[in-house]
Design goal:
This protein is mainly α. The chain is built from ten helices and no strands.
């Protein structure tokens, strides 16, 4: 399903870009603030869906300047990661992940007890690993919140900066 959505979005972006941009810019032209708020809200509620933030970032690329896109993406990441951290048990993420990956969760918990910040940064940087999983584990282990959120911001901020500026260079360059 996601491949179809991404494929369709890429088709529109590369072959119908002018039409899509004119339509969407008309919608966003009312205010960059409104577009940014909508983007942050969608990114924040992503925690409830476990959809990777990269999909939203791809949608935002044509509409926001690179630095602003990085700022609002990281704001959404901080909110959604905090939701996962503080509400991991209430959202029953513990049951979902422990049922699906019991050995990996146990190993991750053991590693986190010893190497908290490097594990959080490294995990957050690796986009093929679900960041929501590390947020859940940190929340259930009650890892220091400041250390946790700094690790997520460094890891995801680095990889999203690379994505945003590389995409900007290649698409607008």
């Amino acid at each position: 399903m996601w491949l179809l959505i991404v494929g369709g979005a890429l088709y529109l972006y590369f072959f119908e870009r002018d039409y899509v941009q004119s339509e969407l810019q008309g919608a966003f032209s009312t205010s960059m603030v409104v577009g940014s708020i909508v983007y942050i809200l969608l990114g924040s509620f992503r925690a409830f869906t476990l959809v990777p933030a990269t999909f939203l970032l791809l949608v935002g690329l044509p509409f926001f300047p690179p630095l602003w896109l990085l700022i609002i993406t990281m704001a959404a990441v901080v909110v959604s990661s905090s939701i996962c951290y503080f509400f991991a048990e209430a959202l029953h993420m513990d049951e979902f992940f422990e049922r699906k990956h019991p050995k990996q969760i146990r190993k991750l918990k053991d590693l986190l007890q010893r190497y908290q910040l490097p594990i959080i940064i490294g995990w957050s940087f690796m986009m093929f690993l679900p960041t929501d999983l590390i947020c859940y584990v940190c929340g259930t282990l009650r890892i220091n919140f400041t250390k946790f959120i700094v690790g997520v911001v460094i890891g995801e901020g680095s990889v999203y900066a690379i994505y945003i500026y590389a995409a900007d260079y290649f698409l607008r360059g």
